[in-house]
Design brief:
The chain has 375 residues and is an alpha/beta fold. It has two domains: 126 residues, Rossmann fold (3-Layer(aba) Sandwich); 216 residues, 3-Layer(aba) Sandwich (Rossmann fold), CATH 3.40.50. The protein has 16 helices and eight strands. Strands 2-1-3-4 form a four-stranded parallel β-sheet, with helices on both faces. It has a four-stranded parallel β-sheet with strand order 6-5-7-8, with helices on both faces. Helix 7 packs parallel to helix 9 and helix 13 crosses helix 14. The longest helix has 26 residues. The radius of gyration is 20 Å and the shape is globular. The two termini are 34 Å apart. The model has no long low-confidence stretch (mean pLDDT 92).
Amino acid sequence: MSVEFEKAWEDRKSIAQAWKNNGGKVVGTFNSLIPEELICAAGILPIEIISLDKSIANSRKYLPEFLCPYLKDCLEQALAGDLEYLDGAAVSHACESLRGFYGVWRKNAGLPEPFFLQIPATAGEGAKHYFILELRLFGKYLEGIAGKPITTDALHRAIEEANENRQMLKRLYTAREQKGSPISGSDVVNVIKARLVLPIARHTDMLKEYLDRVDAAPVDAERDERVRLTIIGNCVLESAAVSQAAEEAGARIVADNLCYGLRLCWETVDDAGDPMDAIARHYLTKIPCPGKFPMETLANKLSDIVVKSGSEGMIWIIDKFCDPYLFQYPMLLDAIREKEIKLLSLEDGDIKNTGRLKLKLEAFVEMIQSDELVY
């Protein structure tokens, strides 16, 4: 049902080039902690740079082996000339690897000057005040690319536009949980992928049309008999592969907490008062990324998502050498054991080996069906 979103993802270079042909600018972003509202208020198209599972060759010269595959892949794309449409890039401090990666990207990617956005790890008043100062610096960077100032009215409009999209995404997530819903995990990932490359208003219009088709679709009673699962992960393409394999193994994906999925859309920006204050407050208090403090907050939110969606198990996808996800894992285990949630942990090596992935997911589904304890 989501073929138009998949096509938009495949056409991402054409979308970026069409934007530039109309006089626009394009900025690449790393991680959903980059406030897209600020970029859109400058009249710039944000396009997320994600791992495409490329063969790693040239980036090995600049990055250590123990760095996560995601960043190696992103630099590989730049070195291969696949990102020449970018007029800038915004790298967030989502982890220490990204902090070091910024310098490597700046020196070796062969692209316009990037910006490093320092993201506080906590959400108190002091952190918010600091983050506002960072956002103002980021705004100056964007104004330099756009060649015009970011006005308060433009910020309010960008927040309103992004909030409308979040509401549509939340409607998608709510519809997926319902009995007999025709929305698959792969459908949701396709919607998310398109969200990373399309102008927000265009994505919202497409999503409204898609949800109207979902509302008119017949109930699929067979899907209600499947094991209900939640996926937690970072990289979009890995989540797509796991979603498809899980459904082929007899499961049904009813919830997720992907970097660009529920974590991005579940809360809207409260745009009362100063828009910069509203943006800072939102990005510091929304469902946190792994590695942000207190870590117990994310562990409890993840386990609550599983319970509220009626999921019978959770799939936790960890990229190799991803410290934030590995640091979060022990606290997640404590939270899910308390609520008796079954868990399957997968690394990227499991996902790339289709036979191993199929075997693990089939075994996980069978264990849930037989009510065996799985941690």
